[in-house]
Design goal:
- The complex is a heterodimer of chains A (about 325) and B (about 525).
- Chain A is mainly alpha-helical.
- Chain A contains 13 helices and no strands.
- In chain A, α11 crosses α12.
- Chain A is globular.
- The longest helix of chain B has 21 residues.
- In chain B, a hairpin with a 5-residue loop joins β2 and β3.
- In chain B, the strands form 5 sheets. In chain B, strands 1, 8, 9, 10, 11, 12, 13, 14, 17 and 18 form a 10-stranded mixed sheet that branches.
- With about 525 residues, chain B is an alpha+beta fold.
- Chain B has 3 domains: about 150 residues, D-Maltodextrin-Binding Protein, domain 2 (3-Layer(aba) Sandwich), CATH 3.40.190.10; about 140 residues, Dipeptide-binding Protein, domain 1; about 210 residues, Dipeptide-binding Protein, Domain 3 (Dipeptide-binding Protein, domain 3).
- The chains are: A mainly alpha (about 325), B alpha+beta (about 525).
- At the A-B interface, α2, α3, α5, α7 and α9 of A face α1, α4, β10, α7 and α13 of B.
């Protein structure tokens, strides 16, 4: 097992190198000169040249690339053109907000969609199956930013049930002392009830909107894979042996059906990292999604590359984790 | 099967209970803040905050304007209707208690106030001013360009007389110096704070100044904290020389989505929302809880036509297009009436502006006739380039496209991403384009025409006319005001006849705030809010 993990981690290096080559080239082929966003139009040509020189933008592209790789190997991803801070620091400070948001969204989506998928498979053709299908269609078809706006309109503007979309916590409420970096968890651990209440209230809408989008594929794959398991020979055998229906569904069918669901969870989590860009913008959530959105809008090369490296790493680690889970869950799988 | 149902019932119960706990209170329409705190919804975070080398982001400029001070400042005057405005052409002492010009207008001597302090308590003296200008000229930032235009070419023209007195020497007398001095680019810096960050690699301490101001502020506010990408907080600077700011703390919350900013202003979650779409303003004006401040700005919106590229190198074609554009529709439907028509390249509000020479109104027959005369009876095809994400630009483009189709010009609209748009406009590579970002902070007509029609920097339409060039060269640095005024009329006459731009509109600067926030003062020099004037009732 440890050999397998080590090999997979080693494989990460060529993957990341490949990604840097592609993003490095792409970000420089796209028109747009960051200097024009960095200094006022009235700045003299000398000033502009000097800034370009300092930012290393005048060197040949392969020199810039080598310098970048050399920096990355030291953990230096360069400075963002927009925030003027080291990209790694920027990514670190924005990672936890995004992680908290996507974690809550994913847990909500799993908690709702897996039981729904199971129920839809068990009671195929009944109202619960229809509901699950309708939800899936809506979840896939509705643009996530639109759902966000409607949710804000209804729950904040009309009903006043949830706070205004102003980030992770009320504007004038001091965040909890940092332990994990997740506001909800930290405020719980430190017994800071005011912060807990505000951070839970703040996360409900964005996490629900993301969960809504994530539920559809999860519910569908759970249903499909459960139906397959319920129609398999071993289920028929179990049934003929007179086992109780709940034992058949949970002990036998679900354990076999859960593997594709886990893969789907990993895929959906990857998808959430994309969907979070829109949701974070609408909900003023200070996470990675908004960071990368701004980076794109302002040709912030170092920030963009840093983000892509980060998300590639997350993807690779996520699927490594899924593979390990397979081994633990399915005795037939050996590494 | 029964236990599945039971389980789901239990989950439902728990979910309902949890919802009850969370929804226990309602978020009613009252501000979260008390009278000592102001919450402002802004669209973006701060960028580079080095006052002499910052970029054009509005929040960043506004931030700098509230934490720094300058030798002189704009005079705040009371209008006939009782409102207060900052006069862009009248200057009073700032950090300097007074200033005096020599008879010949080539030297101005500033006398510093007594007991000035930086936010960290360090004394602020004429030595600090000398330090600031030395750094400024060594760094060669944006301010230097404006100083040089006013005939102050290098740091040796800044003379430290004693710790209370400093003089600026001009090579030739002119009226351009002060117009840029009440601005963040002239912020007086604290040598004790900035000095230690100056290194061989970074002699101007840009690396530190681009992300911090703490200890070197002397304005009404100082930076208290920054949570990158989320919020930044200003707190009253107790060492400020002037009348202390009314409101103690200002929280700037980054809320990128305009409809979220609007909703939060209406609900009272924030006190002020910046950059709202004009289409939402009428509803805000009708709302008794909201005050909307509307002031015509000197920002110019126009369609640039590259005067060196065919067919726009032909004056008749430019005139034809100027006769085809639906001016009223753009002001009324695109800007929803929150703008006035621009009738001279020198905007209304700038001394010397006249609309006397403006002859254009939509007249498609006349436009067609001019195209015929230009030898293009069948029209032509062209691309109209606009910055992406601007509703104003997009709607304007659609009306222009529609109108030009009427005279046989086939227009394709192309939206360019921000960076690509700015790169192309600054390299003068755009041929037929919309632009709306320019405001001449120095409210001096020659400053305006110098940058827009004379200097290679910002003459985006590549307009070239010997007479205009000569007039600008002759009168920019001059103290013969009568001759300057006369020449300015001539420049406007030529520019309107030759139509290098299609003049569109001057937008209103709109700022919407809760009605209990009072004391707003509009500064037409830069449209930026000085928060020290605001208070809550």
């Amino acid at each position: 097992m440890s050999v397998f993990i080590a090999r997979r981690l080693l494989l990460l290096i060529p993957v990341l190198l490949g990604v840097t080559v592609v993003t490095f080239t792409l970000t420089r082929v796209i028109p747009g000169n960051p200097i024009d966003l960095m200094v006022s139009p009235l700045a003299s040509q000398e000033t502009r040249d000097r800034i370009a020189e300092n930012a290393g933008l005048n060197d040949p592209i392969w020199v810039q690339y080598l310098r970048y790789i050399e920096g990355v190997s030291r953990g230096d991803f360069g400075d963002s053109f927009v925030t003027n801070q080291p990209v790694l620091d920027d990514l670190k400070s924005r990672f936890m907000p995004t992680f908290e948001l996507t974690l809550f969204a994913m847990l909500t989506a799993i908690a709702l969609s897996v039981p729904l998928g199971i129920a839809a498979a068990v009671w195929r053709g009944t109202w619960i199956d229809h509901i699950s299908r309708v939800l899936a269609v809506f979840g896939v078809a509705m643009p996530v930013f639109w759902v966000s706006l409607v949710a804000i309109y209804v729950f904040f503007f009309l009903l006043h049930w949830l706070p205004a979309p102003q980030g992770r916590i009320g504007i004038i409420i001091p965040p909890p002392d940092r332990i994990s970096g997740l506001y909800t968890i930290d405020s719980l651990l430190t017994g800071n009830w005011k912060a807990l209440k505000s951070s839970v209230q703040s996360i409900i809408l964005p996490a629900s909107v993301l969960a809504f989008a994530a539920m559809a594929p999860l519910a569908r794959i759970t249903r499909a894979s459960m139906i397959e398991a319920l129609e398999s020979d071993y289920t028929r055998a179990a049934r003929s042996l007179g086992l109780s229906e709940s034992s058949i569904v949970f002990r036998h069918a679900l354990r076999n059906a859960i593997l594709p669901v886990i893969t789907m969870i990993a895929i959906v989590y990857g998808y959430l990292l994309g969907g979070v860009v829109l949701v974070e913008n609408v909900f003023a959530w200070p996470g990675l999604g908004r960071y990368v959105y701004n980076a794109i809008a302002s040709s912030d090369y170092p920030a963009l590359q840093g983000f892509i490296l980060y998300s590639t790493t997350v993807y690779v680690l996520l699927f490594l984790f899924v593979d390990i889970l397979y081994v633990l869950l399915d005795p037939r799988v050996r590494l | 099967m029964h236990n599945i149902m039971l389980l789901s019932r239990r989950i439902f119960l728990i979910a309902t209970l949890a919802a009850g706990l969370v929804f226990g209170n309602t978020f009613a329409a009252h501000a979260q803040s008390d009278e000592n705190t102001l919450i402002i919804a802004v669209s973006r975070d701060l960028q580079n905050i080095d006052p002499t080398l910052t970029s054009g982001n509005i929040n960043t400029w506004e931030f700098l304007t509230n934490v720094y001070s300058w030798l002189i400042d704009y005079e705040v005057v009371t209008m006939d209707d009782g409102t207060m405005v900052g006069d862009p052409n009248s200057f009073v002492g700032g950090l300097a208690e007074s200033f005096e010009w020599t008879e010949d207008g080539t030297t101005v001597t500033f006398t510093m106030r007594d007991g000035l302090k930086f936010s960290n308590g360090d004394p602020l003296t004429a030595e600090s001013v000398k330090f600031t200008f030395d750094r400024l000229f060594d760094q060669q930032g944006v301010t230097v360009g404006n100083m040089a235009l006013a005939e102050v070419p290098d740091k040796h023209h800044i003379e430290l007389i004693d710790s209370k007195t400093i003089a600026i020497h001009l090579d030739r007398a002119n009226s351009l110096l002060f117009g840029n001095m009440a601005q963040a680019g002239n912020s007086i810096l604290n040598p004790n704070v900035v000095g230690p960050h100056m290194t061989d690699d970074d002699p101007s301490a840009h690396e530190w100044l681009k992300s911090d101001t703490r200890g070197t502020e002397q304005g009404p506010y100082r930076l208290e904290s920054r949570d990158p990408g989320n919020q930044y907080v200003l707190v009253r600077n107790e060492n400020y020389f002037g009348e202390p700011a009314h409101i103690e703390r200002i929280v700037f919350q980054v809320i990128p989505d305009p409809s979220s900013r609007l909703a939060q202003l209406v609900s009272g979650a924030v006190d002020i929302a910046m950059e709202l779409p004009t289409v939402d303003i009428p509803a805000l004006e009708a709302n008794p809880d909201i005050t909307v401040h509307r002031n015509t700005s000197r920002t110019i919106s126009y369609i640039g036509m590259n005067n060196e590229v065919a067919p726009f190198d032909n004056k008749l074609v430019r005139q034809a297009i100027s006769y085809a554009v639906p001016y009223d529709t753009i002001v009324n439907d695109v800007m929803n009436g929150y703008a006035i028509q621009l009738k001279s390249p020198i905007p209304k509000g700038t001394p010397g502006h006249t609309d006397e020479f403006f002859v254009y109104s939509q007249n498609l027959e006349k436009a067609k006739e001019l195209l015929d005369q230009a030898g293009l009876p069948d029209g032509f095809s062209t691309v109209f380039e606009i910055p992406i994400g601007s509703q104003e630009a997009k709607e304007t483009a659609v009306f222009v496209q529609e109108a030009l189709r009427g005279i046989g010009i086939d227009v394709q609209i192309q939206e360019l991403p921000g960076a690509a748009y700015f790169e192309k406009i600054q390299k003068h590579e755009l041929v037929f384009f919309y632009t709306n970002f320019w405001i001449s902070i120095n409210n001096e007509p020659y400053y305006h025409v110098y940058w827009k029609f004379h200097h290679s920097c910002c003459n985006y339409a590549n307009y070239a006319n010997q007479t205009v060039d000569d007039l600008i060269k002759e009168h920019t640095i001059s103290t013969d005001m009568a001759a300057r005024d006369a020449a300015l009329q001539e420049i406007q006459r030529i520019l309107l006849d030759e139509a290098p731009w299609v003049l569109l509109y001057q937008p209103e600067h709109i700022l919407a705030m809760r009605s209990n926030v009072k004391g707003y003062v509009f500064f037409s020099a830069d449209n930026l809010t000085r928060y020290q004037h605001l208070y809550k009732e």
